[in-house]
Amino acid sequence: LPWPRLLVPLGCFALLLPPPGAAEFSPSLDSDFTFTLPAGRKECFYQPMRKEASLELEYQVLDGAGLDVDFHLLSPKGETLVFDERKSDGVHTVETEDGDYMFCFDNTFSTISEKVIFFELILDNMGEDGQDQEDWKKYVTGTDLLDMKLEDILESINSVKARLSKSVQIQTLLRAFEARDRNIQESNFDRVNFWSMVNLGVMVVVSAVQVYMLKSLFEDKRKSRT
């Protein structure tokens, strides 16, 4: 899965303000990220948002024992908006205000197993589309003689854009599901091979013991007396 260029994990730093010099997500409306969360660690990220916008976040644990993780989402004021305890996936949407929203993935409850986590951010009403529409409106004057007005063209373009964005989102989620299922299958394959070898070893040992016991029953003990 692709890695966004400007995303920087913040570790276990404070959740109210981004650390000095830390990078943020690019202004893209759709960003996805995959990272490895070591055992006993907590990783936090932040996303600047505007007022009356929408932040949708979906995450999945792709690999690791239990396929679970703790998830926290905090507002710019430090208020806990979402808390998921030891879940394998989740989808959350919040209406935002101006400020930096923090979300953290917590694997401190695990002392051995690391987790591979995928998450995707979808940002709506960030102001860019509205500016594009204002730019289009400057060219609407004088189009009464056209069979199709520029407003209709703009509406069609926005509809196509929305459907393409939804298609990309669905494909990204399907790749994440495929990665998680593949990891589960590989883990099951390793377990089957391990226990098959254990069963084979037990059968060899039992066979050897049985042969030894049968031979001991038919030994001529009189030879040992002489």
Quick summary of this structure?
By secondary structure, this protein is α+β, with helices and mostly antiparallel strands. It is 36% helix and 29% strand.
Instruction: Count helical runs.
Output: 3
Question: What Rg is obtained from the alpha carbons, in whole angstroms?
Answer: 29 Å
What class, by secondary structure content?
A: alpha+beta
Helix content: 25-40%
Shape: elongated
Number of strands: 8
Chain-wise SSE layout:
Elements: E1 30-37, E2 42-49, E3 54-63, E4 69-74, E5 80-87, E6 89-95, E7 99-106, E8 115-124, H1 128-137, H2 150-217, H3 222-225
Antiparallel strand pairs: 1-8, 2-7, 3-6, 3-8, 4-5, 4-7
Task: Write structural notes for this entry.
The protein is α+β, with helices and mostly antiparallel strands. Among the domains are: 99 residues, Sandwich (Jelly Rolls); 56 residues. It is built from 3 helices and 8 strands, in the order ββββββββααα. The protein has a 4-stranded antiparallel sheet with strand order 1-8-3-6, covered by helices on one side. A hairpin with a 5-residue loop joins strand 4 and strand 5. The chain starts with 29 loop residues before the first strand and ends with a helix. The N terminus is likely disordered.
